[in-house]
Specification:
Largest sheet: 6 strands, parallel
Strand order of the largest sheet: 2-1-3-4-5-11
Structural class: alpha/beta
């Protein structure tokens, strides 16, 4: 009887195990046809290398961690994308960690209201330091600026991460950016193909101080010099120098040379510095005159000829100064009336054989499109630019732009937050995170590997 009971139990256990195994096998083999839905921004994350910087899971940040992200601008398509990437990374981190309310990871994006306003960016950095964030990620307008603030941050245990534009500060933990030199080389190669690999071109750079601008310019000029001997860069124009360029153009129009303009401006600076002491100088001169009047008559007679000559020299100098002052007034008035498009158009018209214009960021590309619309021979001038906001995409569609190097600002913002989180956790960082770029034309802009990166 006991043996029968044991047999029954053993049979029951075997049956249960087989049923479980069969059930498991059945479950593994079921295919419903459904796919896990990818987020709309997945292509942006796929461009990030290493891929760890596209992943929010596994970063066990303490509740309430504060990550401060400081950009170079707000309101443009590019910077809106950066901000969107920053905010998405913050949301993904909090979802992964299950944080809500006061426990949520705080990620704040802030930037100058006017793009590339260095003074405003420094003020924002000062304000953020006073809030003692756990980490600061910054896109530096000037790669050599803010070293004092960075020193202060490090002293207070606030590490620094860079994104978009690199920084020369030695203490940067990680930089998430486009490979700007490679992007510049690609842009130059495609640009030269577009103009038939020969002719005069203008390089329009967004500034003369940021690492982004310097690296793109270096990539462009190296590519042209090494591989395109029949292409010549006849002008390199920096947008942060437009105020001075407007004066140079105005001076040329009234017949002043650059040297004369420089001397006149130096004179104006000197006069401005001397304004505060003018009254004192006048009083001293009056006293000297009164003292001279009390001298003996024979001394007065002896000095008459010399005094007359001195007065004549002073009169001639005053007349000359008035002429310079009048010219500078004309220059300043004319420069104030010039638009940025006028400056770019002026330089393009200086070169009647111009074949193309290569712009290095969103703002310069948009400005290039506007300036070309004022040109009678716009159809003869090819244009390649950077970035893909609404204006650029429309210009690409209708043929006003021949090609675009499209960065990944969403991925850049996302990766900067992940790099910041890794910095706080001290889990190690790559020195550089490459956020990728693509070459877009009217012909390929609907392709699967290009379209997701076009933004408006």
């Amino acid at each position: 009887m006991k043996r029968n009971y044991v047999s029954v139990v053993a049979l029951a256990l075997c049956t249960a195990m087989l049923a479980g195994a069969c059930g498991q096998q059945k479950e593994e083999s079921i295919y419903t046809g459904d796919k896990t839905e990818e987020p709309a921004y997945q292509k942006n994350l796929d461009e990030i290398s290493p891929s760890a910087y596209a992943e929010a899971d596994g970063l066990e940040l303490e509740p309430g961690t504060y990550i401060s992200v400081i950009g170079r601008g707000t309101g443009t398509a590019y910077w809106n994308q950066v901000k969107a990437g920053v905010e998405q990374a913050a949301s993904d981190l909090n979802t992964s960690l299950g944080y809500s309310g006061e426990d949520k990871i705080k990620v704040l994006y802030s930037a100058p209201s006017e793009n590339d306003n260095i003074d405003e960016q420094v003020n924002i950095l000062d304000e953020e330091l006073a809030r003692y964030p756990d980490v600061i990620a910054i896109s530096s307008i000037d790669e050599s600026a803010c070293s004092v603030q960075f020193d202060l941050a490090i002293e207070n245990g606030i590490p620094i991460v860079a994104f978009d534009s690199g920084n020369s500060y030695n203490g940067i933990q990680c930089t998430a950016r486009t490979d700007n030199k490679a992007a510049g080389k690609t842009g130059a190669q495609k640009f030269c193909d577009t103009i038939g690999d020969q002719g005069e071109v203008i390089l329009f750079v967004h500034d003369s101080v940021s690492a982004t601008a310097k690296n793109r310019e270096a990539g462009i000029t190296e590519e042209i010099k090494e591989n395109h001997p029949d292409v010549s860069v006849v002008e390199t124009i920096y947008m942060d120098q437009f105020d001075e360029l407007k004066k140079e153009i105005a001076a040329e129009q009234i017949g002043m040379t650059k040297d004369e303009l420089a001397e006149a401006e130096a004179g104006n600076v000197k006069d401005d510095m001397a304004d505060s002491s003018d009254k004192k100088a006048e009083e001293e001169q009056t006293k000297k005159t009164e003292d001279a009047a009390s001298e003996k008559s024979d001394e007065q007679t002896a000095d008459t000829s010399a005094s007359d000559a001195e007065k004549k020299d002073q009169t001639d100098t005053t007349t000359q100064d008035m002429s310079i002052t009048e010219k500078m007034q004309q220059v300043n008035d004319a420069a104030a009336k010039m638009s940025d498009e006028d400056v770019l158009t002026y330089y393009m018209e200086k070169h009647p054989d111009l074949k193309g214009l290569l712009a290095t960021n969103e703002t310069t590309t948009q400005l290039g499109v506007s300036a070309l619309k004022k040109m009678e021979n716009a159809d003869e001038i090819k244009m390649v630019g950077f970035d893909a906001g609404k204006t650029q995409v429309e210009a690409l569609k209708n043929g006003d732009i021949d090609g675009l190097i499209v960065q990944n600002p969403f991925g850049m913002g996302y990766a900067s937050v992940i790099a910041s989180a890794r910095t706080v956790l001290e889990v190690g960082n790559e020195a550089v995170v490459d956020t990728g770029y693509v070459w877009a034309t009217a012909e390929n802009m609907e392709d699967d590997d290009v379209k997701p990166l076009l933004y408006e």
